[in-house]
Design goal:
This protein is α+β, with helices and mostly antiparallel strands and 555 residues long. It contains eleven helices and 22 strands. The chain has four domains: 72 residues, no CATH class; 124 residues, PH-domain like (Roll); 125 residues, PH-domain like, CATH 2.30.29; 127 residues, PH-domain like (Roll), CATH 2.30.29. The strands form five sheets. The protein has a six-stranded antiparallel sheet, covered by helices on one side. Helix 10 runs antiparallel to helix 11. The protein starts with 31 loop residues before the first strand and ends in a 17-residue tail after the last helix.
Length: 555
Amino acid sequence: MSRNWNSHGLPFLPGYTFRDVTKSAFHRPRTLYFKNGYALPRRPTVGIGQDPLLSEQLIQQEMDELSCEIADITYGSRDQSLVKEFIPAHVVFDKKVLRFNAYFEENILYSPDEDCRMRPVVIYYYLEDDSMCIIEPMVENSGIPQGKRLKRQRLPKNERGEHYLWKDLNVGMDLKVYGVKYRITQCDAFTKEFLEREGIIVNDPEPMPVDPYTKHHKNPPPVYTTPSGLNPTHQFLTMDRKVLHFFAMWDDTDSLFGDIRRVTIQYFLANDTVEIREVHEPNSGRDPFPVLMRRQKLPKKIKPQYETFPSSVLEVSAEEVDEYYSPKDFQLGQTMKLMGRRFLLYNCDDFTKEYYQQNHPDMEMKPIEVPKKTDMFLKREKEVPPYNGFGSLEDSLQNCLSLIPEPPKKNLRKMLENSHVVLRYTARLDSQNPLDEGRHFILSYFLANDMISIFEKATRNSGILGGRFLEKTRVPKPGSTVDNPEFYSPADFAIGATVEVFSHRFVLTDADRYVLTYLESVSSEIPCETLESLRQKLGVETPNNQPSDQNEPSS
């Protein structure tokens, strides 16, 4: 309200006012402003033409004075209602949504199990802009595309361009949208309260009709019921998405650039498979692919007939495995070997602990302190894989000690001194087969490397070809183990002695004169029985200066 009319003390009556002829601005002030894209009301601070406004108290006082002087019959009652503050609809109904439960019927063609299907949906009505969306709840393993059926929009009501409003919605009615008829069955408490407050009588909720296919499969005929113990998919259906999660340390210090790394071992209960992944630290420079071992079943025990066969050339099939790894083999605090790698299990997640408490209460899954030093496995003993029979023991051991094997150390002095020293014996084959009678062999012992070779003499009209029977190799004694092997030496080759060579038994029958001469030169290392048997066979008397009981202990 302008102050110009009251500058000279004139009453505000017709005929007592005048215009300011010097005034040139007559625009009205703005009463709306925009915030975040919405128009909001604002009380003006100036009048028309930027004239200052009176305060509300002064305006009320002046209005009271004028009302006392002016008759009520002319100017009406003194009580005047204040104008309410304007609030837009999008502000009043912001985040207020009506929720209805409904369903629609879908016809199924060419199916012997069902002819129709009842699919439940949820209808949301947004009061701020009268838009609607329809969402179908997700059902696990349903095989049907579910989720959002209609995105948020204003749904057409008829061909005249009208849209559905909240007044058109109620429980127990059909909602036709784009050729699909939705039957509304019920609503939530807020929706019911809102509709009743607006004067709409909400109908009673209706039950959701039973789906024929679901009803049929909930009570199947007894003839089709398979016991869970014989059902091959029982483990998958009951243990799907259930995984035992272990935290472990991988000792890779035996390799060329090896280190101790953190890994996670996941045991999938659905099909008893194991997957190992590395835990990469930032800027570690490791391979960006964390899978250390792909998901597979790990054999724990292989059948005896397949243990000696090289496992590196063929994949291990189920026919060759007696037992696979199971959850009872994973114990915290122990070092287990998986596919040739050593892993120390030090912790597991909460689900794994609960699983062991329910299924394996005798196993205590107590986490251990995480080792921090790289020498945490130095106290353990070196594990060497068993000897597979290929090559010599020394060569196989070198393959286990280093990535690039070095040749084993040899006694060069012994090889140089005895490079041409060979002890030769004749022998016969001790066998129960009558066809082996009459077979004669020459057994040669090489002192340079303690190896034995066997050559068979060809016999006329015997039907057996002569030639090399055994190439040069070291022959272990019967009963010796791989960890502590014991090989034949010249002291064991007495006339009449039996030498077992890889399950073949040979009886020594004779030797050449050079054998006796050499053994007498090293008589301190040869038993007297061996020397005496050679002298008797070759017809040589015992020397006077060397008694026959030289190696026997004196009484």
